[in-house]
UniProtKB/TrEMBL annotation:
The lineage of its organism: Bacteria, Bacillati, Actinomycetota, Actinomycetes, Pseudonocardiales. Its cofactor is Mg(2+). CDD domains: Trans_IPPS_HT (cd00685). Keywords: Isoprene biosynthesis, Magnesium, Metal-binding, Transferase. GO terms for biological process: isoprenoid biosynthetic process. Gene3D superfamilies: Farnesyl Diphosphate Synthase. Pfam families: polyprenyl_synt. It comes from the Bacteria. This is Geranylgeranyl diphosphate synthase type I. GO terms for molecular function: metal ion binding; prenyltransferase activity. Belongs to the FPP/GGPP synthase family.
Length: 358
């Protein structure tokens, strides 16, 4: 299964979602069609990063690459993608994002459905309600899918610890994100706190913790994998922030400058604003602050903000932090013995997740 992991994750997700969709369609056909949209969202893209980290932690801690137990572990770690679906659907709604993976976001899709069919009420309110409910459904089904995996009771219980922590940390990160925007908090501490809770913990650290627990790993190995995951997860978010500002829309699936329009106080922006203030560049600082949370942001202001972040040295400083975090993560990974080829694969995943776009 190692060589086609994403394919096997897709298989488990597709089978599970079809089973649940069929059951809902029989009970309530109209809701069954809404579930089809959720399934299309889950299966319509994504790199399956979370199941991949969890799987290789399990393999590194001694899990076999095939057989009945491997299938059970695959089912359990595939459920991570449903937590991710919940986070994305709700995040897009909170940020009022129109596009995800090059397609309309869920709340936009359902608002358009309401509008096209001439239903009563407000299309935007209907779209928001649908997104909330489908995101909640994804989170509920994540639990159901995890619990349904035919795992030994002691292993399921051990992995339930990071599973439960991960759900709470993801939601806490979402709240801190909107709180930081509401308060206009430009501090590096605030941006790093959001990045650690919203991305690092549930994208890398906790999936690694979960996979190791499913294999019955000892505390030393779990601690090392978590240290590796915490630093790589944060580096991954910092790379994502740079891609959000400078990446190709065809690759990222979101319009350039979306983080600015949404008012995201990323570390990149925190450093840029701090450097502008320290250098007495009031006009440049004012321009960047005016871009944050501006729904009508034009391309010229986006481009000027990007130029300023380079000129002020903010991009270079974030790149340096990504490098430092990656190095510390690799030291943690190198400090433990993992069953091969897990060590090399995890190191490769770390490089892939944090490398500079060509």
């Amino acid at each position: 299964m190692d060589g086609a992991l994403a394919v096997h994750v897709e298989r488990h997700l597709s089978d599970y979602l079809e089973q649940r969709r069929a059951g809902m369609a029989e009970m309530a056909p109209s809701f069954g069609s809404a579930v089809e949209s959720l399934a299309a969202f889950v299966l319509g893209g994504g790199k399956r990063i979370r199941p991949t980290f969890a799987w290789w932690a399990w393999r590194g801690a001694g899990g076999a690459g095939s057989g009945r137990e491997a299938e059970a572990v695959l089912r359990a770690v595939s459920a991570l993608e449903l937590i991710q679906a919940c986070a994305l659907v709700h995040d897009d709604l909170m940020d009022d994002s129109a596009v995800r993976r090059g397609k309309p976001t869920v709340h936009v899709e359902f608002a358009a459905r309401h509008r096209e069919r001439g239903w009563l009420g407000t299309p935007e309110r209907f779209g928001a309600a649908a997104a909330i409910l489908l995101g909640d459904l994804a989170l509920a089904w994540a639990d159901d899918m995890y619990v349904s995996a035919e795992l030994p009771a002691d292993r399921r219980a051990a992995a339930l610890v990071p599973w439960q922590a991960m759900r709470a940390e993801m939601l806490a990160g979402q709240y801190l994100d909107v709180l930081t925007q509401a308060k206009g908090d430009e501090s590096a501490a605030a941006s790093l706190s959001v990045a650690r809770m919203k991305t690092a913990a549930y994208t890398v650290e906790r999936p690694l913790h979960m996979g190791a627990a499913l294999a019955g790993a000892d505390e030393h190995l779990v601690a090392a994998l978590r240290a590796f995951g915490a630093d790589i997860g944060l580096a991954f978010q910092l790379r994502d922030d740079l891609l959000g500002m400078y990446g190709d829309t065809d690759v990222t699936g979101k319009p350039a400058g979306d983080d600015l329009r949404e008012g995201k106080r990323t570390l990149l922006m925190s450093i840029g604003l701090g450097k502008a203030d320290a250098a007495g560049r009031a006009a440049d600082a004012a321009l960047m602050r005016s871009a944050l949370g501006n729904d009508n942001l034009d391309s010229a202001t986006v481009e000027r903000t990007r130029e300023l972040l380079v000129d002020l040295g903010a991009v270079a400083e974030v790149e340096q932090r990504i490098g430092e975090l990656t190095e510390s993560a690799m030291r943690a990974l190198g400090g433990v013995d993992l069953a091969e080829p897990a060590g090399d694969v995890l190191a490769g995943l770390a490089v892939s997740a944090t490398k500079r776009a060509s």
